[in-house]
Automatic annotation (TrEMBL):
Transmembrane segments: none
Pfam family, one: AAA_31
Gene3D superfamilies: P-loop containing nucleotide triphosphate hydrolases (3.40.50.300)
Domain AAA: 3-172
InterPro entries to which the protein is assigned, alphabetical: AAA_dom, DNA_Partitioning_ATPase, P-loop_NTPase
Protein name per the record: ParA family protein
Length: 247
């Protein structure tokens, strides 16, 4: 059975989608069968991996219109496309019984065909995110080490605690990692050290450095390993994948 990892942060712009794409690609390159699921209404994961004309999306599957459709991207790597319509999911399904487990039920038939399922969560703690938390075994939280970075983190950890009590007691936080990191900047270095001291068991050793290539790759529909395999971004995500596998 596959392991389900959710990448989440209540704060947007922290590299969550970039991390989902590149960790998924890194796992696939290491020989694991990987399914990515785009749960963000912005659908940046879908667009950033070159899938712009998907007829079947995760939203239609959540509404029961069809089963989850996984589009093949590369050897060992497939994607369930996102949709802007996900922004209205809570309004449509908010009163339905067992609404928190709709995604879990959809993923169940696919779990024997994958080693990892990676969920790219929206930057909001609504019903879509709760669906992700209800089926995930581990959450990974990307952070920029800057002022107010802990605000989004504390909200995520608070929701995690509630979901563990009520919906998914086996879920755990797999780790926190820093993105767009520049240790030469005093504020970022100090914030990183503060968070390591505050959450010593959760903050991962690997950091993702600021990298132009990481911003360029999605515009060409590529992950960092396909676009710039010798870049700092590729080296950092390869190290992060290795660290995640040890956890």
């Amino acid at each position: 059975m596959s392991k389900i990892l959710a990448f989440t942060n209540q704060k947007g712009g922290v590299g969550k989608t970039t991390s989902t794409a590149n960790i998924g690609a890194g796992l696939a390159r290491a020989g694991h069968r990987v399914l990515l699921v785009d749960l963000d209404p912005q659908a940046n994961l879908t667009k950033g991996l070159g899938l712009s004309d998907a007829e079947q999306t995760v939203y239609g599957a959540l509404l029961g219109e069809y089963p989850l459709k996984a589009y093949s991207l590369d050897k060992n790597l497939a994607l369930v496309a996102g949709s802007p319509a996900l922004s209205g999911f809570e309004k449509v399904k908010g009163d339905e019984l067992d609404r928190e487990f709709l995604l879990k039920d959809l993923l169940e038939p696919l779990r024997e065909r994958c080693d990892f399922i990676l969920l790219d969560c929206p930057p909001a703690l609504g019903l879509v995110t709760i669906n992700a938390y209800a089926c995930a075994q581990q959450l990974y939280i990307p952070l920029e080490a800057q002022l107010y970075a802990t605000d989004g983190l504390e909200k995520v950890l608070e929701l995690v605690s509630r979901v563990q009590r009520r919906l998914n007691p086996s879920m755990a936080v797999g780790g926190i990692f820093f993105t767009r990191h520049d240790k030469r900047k005093v504020l970022r270095r100090d914030t990183a050290e503060q968070l390591r001291a505050q959450y010593p068991d959760l903050v991962l050793n690997t950091v993702i450095r600021e990298s132009i290539a990481l911003g360029e790759a999605p515009h060409l529909g590529k992950d960092i390993f396909s676009y710039a395999p010798q870049s700092a971004g590729a080296a950092d995500y390869q190290a992060l994948v290795a660290e995640i596998l040890t956890r």
